[in-house]
Amino acid sequence: MNMEHLCKGPVFPTAFGRRSFIHAGVLAGFGLSMGDLFANEVRTEAMAGKRAEGKAKSVIQIIFPGGMAHQESWDPKPDAPLEYRGPMGVAKTKIPGVVFSENLTKTAAIADKISVVRSIYGRIPDHNIATYHMLTGYLPSAAIQHPSMGAVVAHEFGPKNSLPAYLGIPNVPVGGGTGYLSSKYGAFELGADPGQRRFKVRDIALPGDVTAERFDRRRSAREAVEDHFRTAEANPAEMDTMGEFYKQAYNLISSEKARKAFSLDGEPESMIKLYGDMNNPRNGQPMGIGKRLMMARRLVEAGVRFVTVMYSGSNGWDNHQRIKESFENGMPAFDHAYAGLITDLDQRGLLDSTIVITTSEFGRTPKINTDAGRDHWARVYSQAIAGGGFKRGYIHGSSDAIAAEPDHDAVSVEDLLCTVYKQLGIDADDRLMAPGNRPIDIVRGGKPVEALIG
User: Fold this and answer.
1) CATH code, residues 57-209+256-452
2) Using CA atoms in the order 107, 109, 114, 118, what is the torsion angle rounded to 10 degrees?
3) Which of 20, 99, 245, 399 is most exposed by smallest CB count within 10 Å?
């Protein structure tokens, strides 16, 4: 099962279900459709994009869709009875007395650069509901759709260096939309996997029969037409915002520097080895996570503020059966790539300004089931977080002896989101305006976990 699409359905739609915000080759045969795509959700937001940055300038959010087992990753229980301990061994880390699963040997070697929260608790072990909660800080409501963290960051800070503020590699899950915010704060989705051969980001290049000069002429013609309609429209502010959509699209397509951020060409062999794009040991198919994370590093380095990276491994993380096989196939590639990403960011001086957070919607049951797997479990699970002012070499909280409940220093999903927002310079108690002039807290009921901050 492809877990990246597990939650898709009518329950929690994205703002408008787009795969990207740019499409060259539509307007008058070779223009742009972005403004038309967004026009139905335009509204004036005078303060958007004007917040001062915090210590962290960007976020790389790595999502394991399906509910990854904490016991087989960040929180093994080697002293528990076999039916709770599970089939995997452990790897000693650089943090004295702390072990990770044997699947994370390379990550164990850089554990002194990261934090792990072992006491996160959720609410409902349902994929749709828990994914929405993880990304927004809210449980779903029939009355309103809430914006994801990526959309809030895009709203609060706006784009930088002609690049989208919020981006998905290769996409974002359902729940990663803009909610009640304007669609212009939605994710630009690559729509393709950087691990594929002949990888090419769709929609940021001109059609082959359109020269740069012809593109500029068409741009000027469009601006002239829009100037005319601005004077005639009853709502000029709305027209100005539509023009902003087109401006962002033109900037991305016309900026060589922005386009280069989406290309892995020229990365030295040493970088390829560092991120370790490993092959699946069972079928030889490329896993892609190394190049996905390398792309994420390039993008935050170039100015993208929030990058979501999806990784389903080989069989997904909804491991009701054969959990050992799934982890043996899917985790080595992540382990190599994640350790490479943290090392790379640190060597470039970017780790202090870039938050890297691994997330999954919930954990797995304490006891191995009769199918050699684990079932859904929201009462305690783990996430790793690094950079952006978070402590290095730190384990926060713990689960009990069989990984069933928080033992101490429990952290809610809302608390964790509030902490990330704080490091970005966003007060999660602030309110954003929903339709009907209804102010809504960015996150309700959470508070920053000060012990996580260095």
Assistant:
1) 3.40.720
2) 70
3) 99
